[in-house]
Amino acid sequence: MKKIAVLLSGCGVFDGTEIHESVLTLLSLSKAGAQYQCFAPDINQMHVVNHFTGEVDKTATRNVLVESARIARGEVKATTELDITDFDALVIPGGFGAAKNLCNFATNGSECEVNPLVTDFINEFILAKKPVGFICIAPMMIPRLYGHGAKGTIGNDVDTVAAFNLMGGHHQAATVHDIVVDEANKIVSTPAYMLAGNIAEAHSGIEKLVAKMLELAK
User: Fold this and answer.
1) Where is the DJ-1/PfpI domain (predicted)?
2) Is 23 exposed, middle or buried (0-12, 13-18, 19+ CB in 10 A)?
3) How do residues 87-96 score in pLDDT, each as one tens digit?
């Protein structure tokens, strides 16, 4: 049975992990017969957003690891607890937390950097040549992590695609139902809610991504 790490970035689309994407990822893994363990960096969120009004709560602070525990039903570990020998692959759902907490693409665009704790965590999988799946906006970390020419997709948003390529990545346009596979680097990506109009559309690409990840992990 394959064991897959899932990297979360908080809880809630506007300041953390996109909940639908994370749950669909966990469901797809479970239905495919894989085990999973959720991880998150033990850092503060960039900010806290009221998901009802869309406004930033300037008085509030929240911790990414603590908030991620909401999605993981408490079963979440800090990224520093990773033992790479226990895992066959990694999947990273999207949501603004991927672009605000895991990296700072939301504020810095093509000049973004990946949080050092996150870099260390993902690099364990890269150095071990294990597959990594990136969902929604999470693929914007691919050029920073893998270097020039690494392939990925965020769908077809013109400005985001331009930033991906400017960072040295090789973007491939995709529909919500597609995955893009970089066989050389064992990267799989799908647009999910970068394009999805509903949860069923998001599920289409995520399920294919999980299936490909498990295939690459053999």
Assistant:
1) 13-141
2) middle
3) 999 999 999 9
The predicted-structure confidence for 100-120, as pLDDT tens digits, reads as follows: 999 999 999 999 999 999 999
Q: Is 136 a catalytic residue?
A: yes
Whole-model pTM? 0.97
Cα(49)–Cα(98) distance, integer angstroms: 15
Instruction: Tell me the longest C-alpha to C-alpha distance in the chain.
Output: 47
Instruction: Look at residues 82, 53, 51, 83 and name the one whose alpha carbon lies nearest to residue 67.
Output: 51
Token representation of residue 79: 């990224």
Can you read off the two tokens belonging to residue 179? 């995955």
Task: Check 38, 103, 112, 136 and give the catalytic one.
Answer: 136
